[in-house]
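Course assignment 3, question 2. Fill in each field.
Student: A.L.
Task: Predict the tertiary structure for the chain below.
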Amino acid sequence: MFKEKVKDKNTKARTGIFSTRKGDLLTPAFFPVATQGTVKGLTSRQLSETGAQGFLANAYHLFLRPGIEVIRKMGGLHQFMGVDKPILTDSGGYQIFSLARLRKVEDRGVEFRSHLDGDKIFLTPEDVIDIQIGLDSDIFVPLDECIKNPVDHKKAAEATERTISWAKRTKDYFRQKDGLKSLLFGIIQGSTYKDLRKKCLEEILQLGVDGLCIGGLSVGEEPDLRYNTLSYFTDIADSSYLRYFMGYGKPEDIVEAVSLGVDLFDCVVPTRYARTGTAFTSQGEVVIRNSPYISDSAPIDSECSCYSCRKYSRAYIRHLINTGEMLGIQLLSYHNVFWYINLMKNIRKAIEDNNFLKFKKDFLENYKKNKSMS
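Answer field:
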């Protein structure tokens, strides 16, 4: 499914092509997050204009609302959302396991109470696959046990074993479903313990999966420990598999992770930051809602060609944000997603031009310097 194209000579960064039934992805890539079946504030037409190659939706949230049968009757999630790009559905494992006081984990599955109405729900790994079949997404992610850092080795080992066990059941169940053209990824857990990461990777690869999810990082550990763990994983992971870092990250984090060999990212940051009046630009983060931009006639980013930057000033968008007009958030969300997608294009070009190390250095120096001034 994944074919490596160009490997950077100075880092572990690489470009590649990942094939799905809805088309090929050029990697490294970023998927905007459509948790509830929408990238907040943006239409499918606007998303197409950003150049986004695919999206992440959350099976857990869609299972609760509007319900899988509703989406099935609508013809599946692509039809429901009005998009024709690949959709990856997260099992919701992270969301379920973040409900620490509302869930109970056992080998059979996980019992939890809905964060909406408190109803008790029990899901098995097989149930999670049935949910994603109902959504008709292109890439399935299995149920796993995600644990936060810090965690001792014993508890991390227990969660890793359960993740492996659930992955085996998932694969067995997935294999029984005739005619499925969707892909199945495997999640690699193990916290920051190298022996557990290695064991989980070896066991998951034996099952036969179509890509590798890097789970259980960016959950409380120090950045150095995160990057050391990530670097170790990409060292031992077979290069013929796409490496997907789940739920990550900010621009500087993405550039760093790409240098360590990561191929795919998703994160709510672009639209979440837009809702706080913050824009991502070539000069770092700009908090447009602040007073310095009250009469600023410049576009959000002079180096950006998106519709928001071509048509509107910082002063106008600031006015919209501070008067509670929804258009302001929409214009910023559009820009931020467009900017993220363009960042990935620039990263791919730098790798293919064998210029990634300089690109990374220049980007991080400029971005961090200006971020501290925003």
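Instructor remarks: The first helix runs from residue 44 to 50. The radius of gyration is 21 Å.
Grade: pending
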